[in-house]
Write a structure and sequence with these properties.
This protein is α+β, with helices and mostly antiparallel strands. The protein has two helices and two strands, in the order ββαα. The longest helix is centred in the middle third of the chain and has 11 residues, at 37-47. It is elongated, with a radius of gyration of 17 Å.
Length: 68
């Protein structure tokens, strides 16, 4: 029989901006991440289209990080 690879051996593909990103939940239920959550949020704001915000007039300003 062949030995199956465990899931710990498999590393998912990630965007180059998030290279080295790893996230785990500890025994107490706390989320542990190798990248700061603010950096992840900035990446998601820039890279992911939010269908709830598509019709906003100030969408470009929000993506750039400018605030009123």
């Amino acid at each position: 029989m062949t030995k199956k690879k465990s899931e710990d051996d498999h590393k998912p593909k990630v965007n180059k901006e998030l290279e080295g990103f790893d996230i785990r939940i500890d025994p107490f239920g706390e989320i542990k991440s190798t990248i700061d959550i603010d950096k992840i949020n900035q990446f998601l704001n820039k890279s992911v289209d939010d269908k709830k915000l598509r019709d906003r007039d100030d969408l470009e300003e929000l993506k750039k990080g400018k605030k009123d």
